[in-house]
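Students often ask why we bother encoding 3D structure as a string. The short answer is that it lets us treat folding as translation between two languages. Here is a chain of 577 residues written in the first language.
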Amino acid sequence: MNEIQNLISACEWGSSKFLIFSTNVFDPIIYYSHLFPLISSLILVIFLYVKSNKTPATKILLATVFTLGIWLLGDLILWATDKPSVTMYVWTIINMVEPMVYAGLLYFLYLFIDEKDISFIKKAIIITLLTPTVILASTKFTLLGYDISNCDRDAVEGPLVYYGYFIECIFILWMLFFAIKSYIKNKLKEKRPKIALITFGSLGFLIAFSFGNVIGSLFDANSIFGDYSWTVGQYGIFGIPIFLVFLTYVIVKYKTFKIKIFGAQILMMGLMILIGSQFFFIKTNTNQILTGITLVSSIVFGVFLIRSVKKEVAQREEIERLAQDLAESNEKLKELDQMKSEFLSLASHQIRAPLTAIKGYSSMLLEGDFGVLPQKATDSVQTIMKSCQNLINIVADFLNISRIEQGRMVYEKSNFDLAELTLEVINELKPNIENSGLNLEVDIPQGLDTKINADRNKIKQVIGNIIDNSLKYTLKGSLKISVSNEIDKAQSSHEATAGKVKIAVKDTGVGIDPSEMNKLFEKFSRTKDAGKTNVTGTGLGLYIAKKMVEAHGGDIKVSSEGVGKGTTFIIELPKTN
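And here it is in the second language, the structure alphabet:
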């Protein structure tokens, strides 16, 4: 005891205030290297824990950083204290908790990458490795005694300390093996960067931590670092909050927290800590005033910055939420549209059979297969026949829509003359046109090359649909149908020419409001005044016609000068070469 007292007197050790403030800490860098990582790391992880959804990974990281804080505070006490008993006690504590930091990072890595708890066997191995450092912490296996041979205030470390270094190496190798295995095993490209980044951050954190302790323990005054071995180690500790910020960034990035807000808040907190720490070391009043003004200005600036970032993030999140809602609604609409198409197909097939029967028996009645009908009954059966045919046409439209939308429409293409087909349709519809009291004008020049490759029945249906549509909405006047060629000039005179065949159907009917022109070829869509002229339209015919023509590489166009000024429909189909 006397020897220790003599050593204290001879070395002129100063007493410590609050265990950490003392003249024995000969260099301010030691305060920076311990207090800054201690405070910033705790604030950072507590903030992350509060802001996150408190996953097991963030809980373990929080516990690990608290353990790190015990080590940093204990190490700073060793630098400041002049009491050998305090030195021996604190040295025991930091030797015990140091391997726990490594074990905590290993546990954290498992939780973050696998997103589930580790197995009981792995937990048992970790606890078994740590048990000697806890049970034997207060024995001579950890510390042999107090070194009174110099003024460095060191304890003499026992073999258990080197056992701690050994299991720390095991934990690091374990982390590396697990990370590499997970990286290779995981074939999802988006998960591999997550594994690489979190492993880099964890190992960087441990290397920075080890640098501050192992350098001083493993290298004595005769090493390449000389008497500065412990001083050199201080610079490594500065890496702890840097890698912790990196870890936090990775957690935020892959756990979908508000990264911009979080980053701005962390930046401002780090700046406040750095500026505020100056008060521990500056001596002059002028510097204290300037530092205070800088701190207040930074706080005000930080508040406005964070508010601005929050506003921007809130606006972006609202846009993303609306976009997500729209995407989900669009998917639901697609599903409903598909269900509707399937229902139309099924219902149309079921309806067509009885309609065919009604039409067949009505035809037999009119033809006298069941005897001669009175005139009144004949008129009624003819009305039934006409209504039945209208229903059959509607059912056919429904079937065509469902086939088109489900991609089941079959086109049997062949070469034929479009002008001849147009004349055929005109002749079939001529009685209807004459009964409507309209003048019919046909302009199909002789010898016109109108050969196309298409499904003849489908194109006949399209032409009939367009002519019938004009007939329905033209109460008086005329109907002009023309066929012509359009030659598309090639880009070069050396290239072959291409061409189109055009069928134009021009009427003097109700016309179309230009603002409603884009509705004309939509499903179940009619212009607002269409019902005044024809109440039986379904808004399907033009949609089906356009889809059929487009399937042949052609197009249907419409033009009108306005309401009451007639309409012109043009069918364009590519010629055969």
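Translate back mentally: The beta strands are 143-146, 155-157, 413-417, 439-443, 451-455, 478-488, 498-507, 555-559, 567-574. Keep this in mind for the problem set.
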